[in-house]
């Protein structure tokens, strides 16, 4: 088992997806995900990308995000609206509810713990 895992997706075919249609508010957002690491304890790491659109999000997992490119607005239900762009890092905790709106195709690095 490797103890050092580089987040390198050059040899990984992305998984294609989209938010569930009932969650979409506007646009036709499409996802590509390069999952580079799956570890014991339900931990995942990799790269995720989304095209423009807006959808409702509901987090049951803990996720660290670092935006690599693009621009999005994340709005917490009954709370603040935050614009994120290249260089921004943040954590979404279990229980987060709100919307994710991609203004410019957004790519992020992620670490998820279920």
UniProtKB/TrEMBL annotation:
Residues 1-24 are annotated as: Disordered. Transmembrane segments: none annotated. InterPro entries: RmlC-like_jellyroll, RmlC_Cupin_sf, UGlyAH_Cupin_dom. It comes from the Bacteria. Residues 38-110 form the (S)-ureidoglycine aminohydrolase cupin domain. CDD domains: cupin_TM1112-like (cd02227). This is (S)-ureidoglycine aminohydrolase cupin domain-containing protein. It comes from Phyllobacterium bourgognense.
């Amino acid at each position: 088992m490797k103890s050092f895992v580089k987040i390198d997706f050059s040899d990984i075919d992305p998984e294609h997806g989209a938010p569930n249609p009932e969650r979409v508010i506007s646009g036709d957002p499409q996802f590509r995900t390069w999952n580079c690491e799956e570890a014991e304890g339900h931990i995942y790491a990799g790269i995720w990308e989304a095209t423009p659109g807006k959808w409702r999000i509901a987090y049951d997992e803990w996720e660290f995000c670092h935006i690599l490119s693009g621009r999005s607005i994340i709005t917490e239900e009954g709370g603040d609206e935050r614009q994120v762009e290249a260089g921004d890092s943040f954590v979404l905790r279990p229980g987060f509810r709100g919307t994710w709106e991609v203004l410019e195709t957004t790519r992020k690095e992620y670490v998820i713990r279920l």
